[in-house]
Task: structure prediction
Amino acid sequence: MNNREMKGREIANHLKIVHKGECYLVPSQSAEKTYTVRMGKQLYCNCPDFAQRGDVIGKCKHILAVEIKFSKQSDEFGNTVLMKTTSITYPQDWEAYDKSQTNEKDMFMRLLNDLGESIVEPIHDGAGRPSLPLRDVVFVSAMKVYTTFSLRRFVSDMRTAKEKGYIMWTPHYSRVARYMKSPELTPILQNLIKVSSLPLSKVETSFAVDSSGFSTSVFSRWFNFKYGRNEQERTWLKANIMIGTKTNVVTAVKLTECNSADTLHFPELVNQTADDFHIEEVLADKGYLSRDNFDLVDSIGGIAYIPFKRNATKKPLGSAVWKKMFHYFMLNQEEFMSHYHKRSNVEATFSMVKRKFGGSVRSKTETAQINEVLLKFLCHNICVVIQEMNELGIEVRF
Result:
């Protein structure tokens, strides 16, 4: 399967193709427009790729998408007709969903409080009133991110938490921002993300990895000597995550600067997940293609489904797994794609986090920005656990 065939399959599986008369309207993957495809003896598509190279390639990705979406069959007269294929859909468990959504905030506060029980408090030495316990710092910080409120509007939620006994006292709203600047909060949040995924350790065996950015309110500035002017660009944090493809729970997170290569963090994400989960397969895009990554997943008893680039060769160079997967990818495309298609769940996870808790961070300092992004994933995991408590009937004990 070449690159055009892979993109054609992606279009057929994820985009809506409209059959209009003798034509098919196929959406573009990169722009908000559609291309017109005509099937039959004389294939036609008005995309630039087919116009420039149609005589050479024969079929562009849009024509291939139509062929995949509408299977070829012959009628009683021997004419080729296209029959639309139907996709298998899985109904939503609305009873479990309604129960999760209508009780989410109460359950969120309870589970967040339970997670805080594992936090080791530092010893207070010296006179004066002790500072707010670390578990309370985590609680109010996570609730602030969960509600997406401003600091002032969030005060009433802290009063509610105090009334329910989740925190010792209600801190001033400005102190919440100060808490999130604390470097000692970062390793605690990373551990809590890991702990919050453990209730689903018996459910997840298939995992996907990817990265995405969270924008900040900070700009980087430099002088462009080519054009003789000052330039500026909004900075952003890159989150590298591994998720379970069945529930979208996040099992490992690594935050880096925006230009860091994704494949460098693959071993850390896999090893962290392997500590608590049985990994049968890992799904990743071409950015993670390397012999070391194949060997790593194989060493823990799993299979890495990573598509090969056009210029990749079968030479093992010390990796027998590389050669085996190269032949598997080239000779068993349908079977490979039946596994690889689950990789889209990691993109769905980023979408879930950004739609519910925001795709940008409000904090100004680097440490606070890192903690804020980690809190988004912690809140996401707790919400996933709440959903699975009602849908799968699992018991949660942190």
About this structure: Residues 3-84 form one domain. The two ends are 46 Å apart (CA to CA). The longest strand covers residues 206-224. The chain is about 45% helix and 20% strand.
